[in-house]
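Quick entry, no commentary yet.
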Amino acid sequence: MIKVLFICHGNICRSTMAESVLTYMVKQRHIDHLFEIYSAATSREEIGNGPHYGTVSKLRQVGVPVVPHRAVQMTKADYDYYDYLIGMDSANIRNMNRIADGDPDGKIYKLLCFAGYETNHQLAAGRDVADPWYTGDFDATYQDVLAGCEGFLQFLKEEGKL
């Protein structure tokens, strides 16, 4: 089982979008039995809230089912449990490292470090996933999430995990 936790600030926009997109992608490829996919926040601001209406609307527009989810906060125990903890931006990565007391096992990644992996076969520094909370641009966020998830699956394949 490949256990993946997507993380953003509030767990209502980007991380829930990534959770839904990757869940859909692995189901389409008939490899969903190999995965456990979830998402969480670094903050407590949105705990208990469902996905942002912009995330829901964008996913419906592109035909990706929204995974039922309520915002939760990442814990130190999550670091031990999940194989990949994937943040959406540099601030998330800093907060994830703080919550986990560092990254001794090398499990923390930024989603867009996987973007383009299918063509260049290496991890990039990775820019931040566009944050629709501030821009309202869920199209840009979806394109970033899609590129990161595609690259992540290619990364897993080339690492011999798929």
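second:
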Amino acid sequence: MEITEKLTTNKQIITFLTEQFPLCFTAGKEPAKPLKVGVFQELATRLENNEVVSKTQLRGALRQYTMSWRYLHCVKVAVKRVDLDGIEGEEVSQDHADHALKTLKESKEKAFANKKKVEDSKPKQAAKKVNIPQRTKKPVVKKEVVEDLSQYKPANHAELALQQSVKVLLGKSPVSAVVIEILKDDVQVQLNSGMIVKVKAKHLITE
């Protein structure tokens, strides 16, 4: 099929070159071949009367082709260069191989740096907060100490004496106290807290 439309992109021009000179230019997974030094001049001469591509476009497409990672990988010492017809010529020099390796390394570093820059610029997704149920501490139940009152006996009003140690039956636990006054029907005692209360003898127990 004859190409009549003018090519506009480097990709189109490179495809055109692989079709016109398949023994020189390669595409896809096929390994690239080091190009003959001065191959641009040969291209310009061969395509001088071809209206689909200009010299300026050829120069740009050729630069893109030779700067690709696939091409830079093939430029190694002692590998023979080829012309447009695939005829092998001089070998790749050490300087050219070193330059290709350096260019490849810089290109990859730049590509990876740009990729990282794009990834870093993306809004980071906040870590999903997981609610861990907290274990509720059970209140410590204070064990009630039951005092041994087996040695005590109900107080007898007539037998009580001043300054006698007694237990006053108040609430759940008897409270220690001292007899400070013995009345006709009641008894006044002073609790360990200093409080003075008046109680009936039946509310007291003694040893």
